[in-house]
Design a protein that fits this description.
The chain has 346 residues and is mainly α. It has helices at residues 19-38, 49-52, 59-75, 93-102, 107-112, 114-125, 136-139, 141-150, 164-181, 222-230, 249-254, 260-271, 277-304, 306-336; strands at residues 6-11, 42-47, 84-87, 156-158, 190-192. It folds into two domains: 6-199 and 306-340, 3-Layer(aba) Sandwich (Rossmann fold); 210-301, Tyrosyl-Transfer RNA Synthetase, CATH 1.10.240. The strands form two sheets. It has a three-stranded parallel beta sheet. A two-stranded parallel sheet has the order 4-5. The radius of gyration is 23 Å and the shape is globular. The structure holds tryptophan (TRP). Tryptophan binds at residues 8-10, 12, 48, 51, 145, 148-149, 157, 163.
Length: 346
């Protein structure tokens, strides 16, 4: 389905990813990229560190988050010899392109962007002035994201529902520029939502999210994973009582990780009163450990040998930059007139 397409995925290095992020976002993103590559397409995968500085001001924390996120993607199977894997801040053309895009970004788009609106709502709820603590980086972040996307002539941006609006903004800006100069300067991207990827519930039944404190950790030791799984909410029905698996939280989490046969086994055992909550928690634990075991080793390796990862990111930037440079050059020639030529960029 991604025949010859250019796919771009970006991730903000904020927060330590948990199992829900891994199963619901990271692995699917890697798989989509691999699918595109297998069908003659390309995959750009970058770490959006310029986006992260809007919220995180501590360089040590930023560096640590970047490190974790880079190693998690590698551990999850991203192959940097196939995907273009780079750090946003290594591509100086991105902020240059952003500056040009600003001239075509209606301020009203930014007012309506949900990240900004969410911040305003939070301020209102706390009885603070609307723009309290909101910086221009947050306010204008859809334009920077548009530059991320448009720089590489991206066809498809895989996103969660919350990011659809941002891809549409990128499309609108690109369309406005193309219309103004009456040439196809920028390629119009589309978003892609993977309907098959389920939201992984957390140990209290709400969506797994760090802010709810209901996560199953990803690359911590078995003990930490076990502790989280054994605190998943259950009721006091005895084992023998036949149970409908639907709505049993352990089973709902198991869905995002088990094979169909494993899932069937748990469902049958619950329906027949042969499996109690302790059993099914152990089944889930085995599945989680089995899922993360190999990746965790890789993760620990890369965390301990981050110089190797730095080298991969540097090589990725070398592949990404010429593409972004070409886009910037096209834009500058159109915006400032062709007489400006390409001399300034080499
Ligand atoms: N805004 C995205 C997020 O919060 C991260 C991101 C930045 C991104 N630039 C992008 C995602 C470009 C896709 C394409 O998750």
């Amino acid at each position: 389905m991604f025949e010859g397409k250019t796919i771009l995925t970006g991730v903000k290095p904020t927060g330590t990813p948990h199992l829900g992020n891994y199963l619901g976002a990271i692995k699917p993103a890697i798989a989509l990229g691999q699918e595109a590559i297998a069908h003659g397409g390309q995959h750009y995968m970058f770490i959006a560190d310029y986006h992260a500085i809007n919220a995180e001001k501590d360089p040590e924390v930023l560096a640590q988050k970047l490190k974790e996120i880079a190693c998690i993607y590698l551990a999850g199977g991203l192959d940097p010899s196939k995907s273009v894997f780079y750090r946003q801040s290594d591509i100086p053309e991105i902020p240059e392109i952003t500056t040009i895009l600003y001239a075509y970004t209606p301020k009203g788009f930014m007012n309506k962007a949900h990240a900004y609106k969410a911040a305003v709502d939070k301020n209102r709820a706390a009885g603070k002035p609307d723009d309290d603590g909101i910086n221009m980086g947050l306010y204008t972040y859809p334009t920077l994201m548009a530059a991320d996307i448009l720089a590489y002539d991206t066809d498809i941006v895989p996103v969660g529902k919350d990011q659809v609006q941002h891809v549409e903004i990128a499309r609108d800006i690109a369309g406005a520029i193309n219309a103004h100069y009456n040439q196809p300067l920028l390629h119009l991207p589309e978003y892609h939502i993977d309907e098959n990827v389920a939201v992984v519930p957390g140990i209290d039944g709400r969506k797994m999210s760090k802010s709810y404190g209901n996560v199953i950790p990803l690359f911590e030791d078995d003990k930490a994973i076990k502790k989280a799984i054994f605190s998943i909410k259950t009721d006091s029905r005895p084992m023998e009582e036949p149970k409908d698996p639907k709505g049993i939280l352990v089973y709902e989490i198991y869905k995002s990780i088990a094979t169909p046969a494993q899932l069937q086994e748990m469902a049958d055992g619950l329906r027949q009163g042969k499996l109690g909550y302790g059993h099914i928690k152990n089944m889930l634990l085995d599945a989680v450990i089995n899922e993360v075991k190999e990746a965790r080793e890789k993760y620990n390796y890369y965390m301990a040998h981050f110089d190797e990862v730095e080298e991969m990111l540097a090589q990725g930037a070398q592949k990404a930059r010429p593409v972004a440079q070409a886009t910037l050059q096209r834009l500058k020639s159109a915006v400032f007139g062709n007489h400006r030529g390409g001399g300034a960029i080499s």
